[in-house]
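Most newcomers find our protein records easier to grasp once they have seen one. Sequence and backbone structure share a record, each on its own labelled line. To make this concrete, we reproduce a full record directly below:
***
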Amino acid sequence: MKTIRLLAVAFFVTAFSMLSNAQSMYMAKQYYNQGKYLEAAKQLRPLADGGNAEAQTMAAKMFFEGKGVTKSNDQGVKYATLAADQGYEDAILLLADYYTAKDRQKAVNLLKTSLEKFPRLKDGKVNDKYKTMMSKSLYSKETPTLTGNAPSLVAAGEQFRLTYTVNTQDVEGFRAGNIPDAFEVLMGPSTSTQTSIQMLNGEEKQTSSITYIYILQASKNGSFTIPAAHITANGKNIESNTLKVTVSGNYKKAESKESVTTSSDITDSDLFVKASIDKKNVRLGDSLTLTLKLYTLVNVTSLDAGIPDIDACYFEEWPLPREKSFEVEQYNEKNYRTVVWQKYKIVPLKTGTIVIHPQKFDCIVVSKDRNIDPFEAFFNGGTANTEVKKRIYSPQISFTVNE
């Protein structure tokens, strides 16, 4: 009977304590919303020191902002960490925001560790923030730059590339300068994304860039200046260098009234991309490798690859040589020129069947134009070749993720 009484007393004490804590938390929020920060801090401090994750998060915010307490980032980190260690979502997000401004990789590591420690967070804001930071490579410490490139000398009638490369993927609002009327814009801007990964002192460092590409054609002789382009990168407004292009002479190329060669003349067996993965079944948290390999029987002079579309995964591109070296491989009794164009490390973020959707590849192929006499083209200083645009897609594949 005495034991039962003691248990009853303990129950009522616990219930009263919980009711008291809830009331204190309610009062703290009321005071905070009314701007009475000192009174809010008095209500919060005992709760925070007693291990209440919600109170610890609110206290951390007040220390970061200096409301009701002396501003202290150290105290803010202390209380936010105590709550984050309990898997409290708002505390993890608050701490990640704080780290992002100082050490973005530390913010990424915090989110990743929290997701591994508390699986329930994978359906919430922590997982969303983690995927956003990874996909945009926000933890790169490089100062954002925008670099313009174009040939300094071209001939009238010649086509050339104008490119702008920014060394981060956290960008918005790209605006090219006013391109002089002497240059006709044939295409653009198209975009190309590149990501590389390096291991430095045992830590993985990822750098990313986006290139905006224009194809221009010079129409008249003279010297022309292409003004700076502008973009917002990592939250900062930056501009590129200006470019000077001199147009001199005439570009000699044999012309035909009608080109017989079209992209439809290039069949799916002439040019295609194979997609392969090194594992068909993985456990949640494990990684696998996606390889995209080009097979061609035609002369590909340019290839602009899109970005993979992969369900519920974090992915990053492995660094490959910019200068592609083709090898000969026999496939279906034909000798193809082949090259691994892209490789990705994939980390699934949920269980089940994960689909890797078809990826777009825009190619430029040089082929013989049957409407042009090669001897006439030779003596006229031109060529019997013509450029053909061809769009191809990698096949859709999938894999399974288990707990």
Notes: The mean pLDDT is 80. The longest helix spans residues 2-33. The longest strand covers residues 183-200. The helical segments are 2-33, 37-49, 53-65, 73-84, 89-100, 104-117, 125-136, 374-379.
